[in-house]
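Risk register update: the risk of archive-format incompatibility is retired. Evidence:
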Amino acid sequence: MPVDEVAFVCNICGIENTAPPSVFDRESASCPHCNSTVRTRAIVQMISRELLGADLPLPQFPKLKSIRGIGISDSPDYANRLGEKFDYRNTFYHKAPQFDIVHPPEEEFGSYDFLIASEVFEHVAPPVDIAFENAFRLLKPNGVFFFTVPYTLDEHTAEHFPALHDYGIAQLSDRMVMVNRTREGQLQMFDDLVFHGGGGSTLEIRRFSENDLRAQFERAGFVSLKIYGENYAPFGVLRPENWSLPMTARKQPFQIGLDGISALMDHWIEMSKRVRLLESRVTEYQELLDSMNRRTTEELEARTKWALDLERQLSERTEWTTILQKDVAHHTELAEQFQAESAKTAEEARHLETRLEDLRRQLEVLNRKPWTRAGRAIGLV
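Archived output:
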């Protein structure tokens, strides 16, 4: 891995990744598997810490259906997975299934253990105080509010349309414009509009400041506000700036009720069963592995003995072959000597035969001589 690559586990999909530091800005997709961003991974990390007390990736969350939550325009990269773990539903501020934080159903007040509003409150029509107050009302006494908006470190929030009342947005030539009728009946037109990801209800109504956000939470009744500003590299939560950070606000310190404890116990029992099953399987696999190791050892010993026997036989045959080769060489040498002696004897025999032939001719010549016949007549020969 290159030195400048950052290794992390996406706490939304649970996949290991590497990415260059340049992609870790607030809204860039830095997990190639689920397209999560630093902001969405930070939200899941807050949920894990505030509800479970530990930094867990979302796939490892226990299933606690006794914990009820609602999201407003939550990102799909974590919303569906949250629905598998908690009694949670996702809604939207500007489309179906719609949930109007300014006018929520009163029967839902005090119903939720947690509420998520990420990148929503900057689009709420003024006065935004009502949205914070309703978030407080929707939560149970020990509920927690998970919150993000783009904000600055300026002294005050910048309200782009402070007199917004009865308004509409339309396309005019090459740009979008908004026409507003104030409560006093005055008409206003704005053409310097900023949209977050599209038109309509994604219009930026304000740019919060951190100071005003703190005051909003306090006025709404929240007793504790925490700003998550620290990095957490194992989950790829790396922040290049110290503003627009995720926040949590509580009505009071979090406590798990009896239903939650019961759900945790059910989860613990289920996990214990799985652990025991896994331990049983591990034991079976270990016994199988030991048996295979024994068979392998026995077979290895048998094959080693066979190889040693073969090596001994080969050595003996090699030795016998060496002796045979020596015998063959010796007999070859004797044959060569015998052949040489035979050739010499044959040569001598030919020489004697030639000499004998000469002697025969000489004798024949002598026999034809007159004196020889005279000598034979008188009995001298």
